[in-house]
């Protein structure tokens, strides 16, 4: 299950000044993975690498993830909901309070498919929510759509 910030958000056009020609390559994107499960961090990293991303950083808890996001200024954050020290919702809130990170795409992951969890993530500023396990094509499509929506640039995927 995925849930955008607003049901219509993904269909809105970019800013009027954008001619739609801007593009970036995956290796220009910076991603931060935040998950206390090492295997999940590896799976997400592997998926991102298969999409062509090379600038991938990871943290094992929300507090370290927020610090990493502030330092690295990522284009994409993929974070677990349940984590020690600082859970995913606190991470989302901390990221959204930082103006420099306002165009960062935030994808929340959780094994729980609970309405309260999804709605809480949405209200605090998560762009979408994916239930684990996720499928790589779905993750790639979400990254592509959300990045374009918030940065008015298309990702020039190689494959």
Automatic annotation (TrEMBL):
The modification 4-aspartylphosphate is found at residue 80. The keyword Transcription does not apply. The keyword rRNA-binding does not apply. It comes from the Bacteria. Pfam families: Response_reg. GO terms for biological process: phosphorelay signal transduction system. Residues 30-147 form the Response regulatory domain. SUPFAM superfamilies: CheY-like. InterPro entries: Bact_response_regulator (IPR050595), CheY-like_superfamily (IPR011006), Sig_transdc_resp-reg_receiver (IPR001789). Keywords: Phosphoprotein, Two-component regulatory system. This is Response regulator. The lineage of its organism: Bacteria, Pseudomonadati, Pseudomonadota, Alphaproteobacteria, Sphingomonadales.
């Amino acid at each position: 299950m995925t849930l955008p910030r607003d049901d219509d958000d993904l269909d809105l056009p970019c800013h009027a000044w954008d001619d739609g020609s801007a593009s970036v390559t995956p290796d220009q994107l910076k991603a931060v993975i935040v998950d206390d499960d090492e295997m999940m961090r590896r799976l997400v990293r592997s998926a991102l690498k298969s999409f062509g991303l090379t600038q991938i950083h990871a943290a094992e808890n929300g507090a370290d993830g927020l610090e990493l996001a502030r330092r690295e200024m990522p284009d994409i954050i993929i974070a677990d909901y349940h984590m020690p020290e600082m859970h995913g919702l606190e991470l989302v809130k901390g990221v959204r309070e930082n103006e420099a990170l306002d165009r960062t795409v935030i994808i929340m992951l959780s094994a729980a498919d609970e309405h309260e969890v999804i709605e809480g993530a949405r209200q605090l500023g998560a762009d979408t929510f994916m239930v684990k396990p996720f499928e790589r094509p779905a993750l790639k499509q979400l990254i592509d759509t959300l990045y374009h929506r918030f940065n008015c640039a298309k990702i020039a995927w190689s494959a």
